[in-house]
Amino acid sequence: MSRPRGRPAQGAGVSREGILAAALELLEEGGGKGLSMRALAARLGVTPMSLYHHVQDHASLLRALSDRIYGEVMDGQEEGAAPLEVIRGLLCRYHDAVGRHPQLTLAIFSEPDAFAGVSRQITDHLTAQLAAITSEPVLWRDILVDHAHGSGLALASARGRPGEAPMLSERYRQALDRLLARLAP
Questions:
Q1: What integer pLDDT is reported at residue 163 of this predicted model?
Q2: What tens digit of pLDDT does each residue of 79-113 get?
Q3: Using an 8 Å Cβ cutoff, are 116 and 173 in contact?
Q4: How far apart (Å, rounded) are the C-alpha atoms in residues 38 and 165?
Q5: How far apart are CA 147 and CA 85, in angstroms?
Q6: Which residue ranges of the chain lie beneath pLDDT 70?
Q7: CB atoms < 10 A from the CB of 67, how many?
Q8: How would DSSP label each residue in 84-115?
Q9: Contact present, 184 and 100 (Cβ < 8 Å)
Q10: pLDDT value of residue 175
Q11: 27-53: string of b/e by CB count within 10 Å (b at 16+)?
């Protein structure tokens, strides 16, 4: 039996976007346990070594997925908006992304080297905005991010139960507003 090489039998090469799309599918299908370089190569019909032309290792694969998924969180920043508005918008977008892709969030928790790129930018931007309104920006960042993670993961668990996801999203926003009111200058 011959092993698949870098090009699938159809003659089309594997692309970085194709790798990321298949990786996200494996991550979500396997409940976070199904994503390995070997499983990804098998899904794409190539050898594991052919993936390393596009991603350096498992951590860099997770970083690339994080950049792709969480990139939208950094979009939509309003120029000149007050820090509390920026913080609220950033955290709401992040919460929604965690709810859509909980396995990616959990995978990043388990692979510290994957925390870079956009994930780091979100954290740094949030910390800078908090520094403008509190003397404890790191403490508040951790509180707010942990709240977004917990609520976002709960949101993911509501999939398939009509009406529950919007209610959980609204509760998150209400709780976030109460937390941010404690920070209001």
A1: 86
A2: 789 999 999 999 999 999 999 999 999 999 888 88
A3: no
A4: 35
A5: 17
A6: 1-13
A7: 16
A8: HHHHHHHHHHHHHHHHH-HHHHHHHHH-GGG-
A9: no
A10: 97
A11: bbeeebebbebebbbebbebbbebbee
Structure tokens at 180: 């941010």
User: Distance between CA 176 and CA 58 in Å, rounded?
Assistant: 33
Tokens coding 43: 């899904």
Task: Return the structure tokens found at 38.
Answer: 């070997």
Q: What is the pTM of this model?
A: 0.87
Strands (DSSP E) contained in 2-79 are none
pLDDT at 152: 94
4 residue type, one letter: P
Tokens matching residue 25: 């599918």
Tell the residue number behind the tokens 């780091």, with chain if given: 120
| CA atoms within a 13 Å half-sphere pointing along the CA-CB vector of 21 | 6
Cβ atoms 130, 183 nearer than 8 A: yes
d(CA 41, CA 38): 5
**Euclidean distance between CA atoms 122 and 138, whole angstroms:** 13
Cβ atoms of 165 and 159 within 8 Å: the answer is yes
